[in-house]
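User: Hey, my collaborator sent me this sequence without any context and asked if I could get a structure. I don't really work with proteins. Can you help?
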Amino acid sequence: MRSSIYTEARLHPWMATGAAVLGSLALRLLLGGRVAASGGNATVGKALHIQMEAKPGREACVQRLMQDILGAIEDEPRALPWYGLHRGSQEFGIFQTFPDELARVRHLASPGARMLLARSVALLARLPRIRHGRADG
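Assistant: No problem. I've predicted the 3D structure and written it out in structure-token form, which is a compact way to encode the shape of the chain:
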């Protein structure tokens, strides 16, 4: 299994709280300044934060969807870190960063994004809440 905050949080529940705090901090940083991409000197310019609520009884299916999305975006050349989170019993989230607007727009038409949209009606209590963030302002 690939390692991400999502998989690590499932294996170590204490990490879920840390991931939520990091995600919250990242959003604040995105609104206020530049954020360095982990593992390099690239500057992150754009971000997506997606919040989802699973329908009752569909949590395992949403977990599988998150794993499928992660697999689909691994080959995207300009999708920097991807963080998935499972908070509480039905709350899920994705936080992903991009170097610029073009990379983010391309991602929104990617197989991972299409997968999320195609499965949303069957798995989620409501449409995903998608927030766009900036780090270049």
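In plain terms: The two ends are 37 Å apart (CA to CA). You can pass these tokens on to your collaborator as they are.
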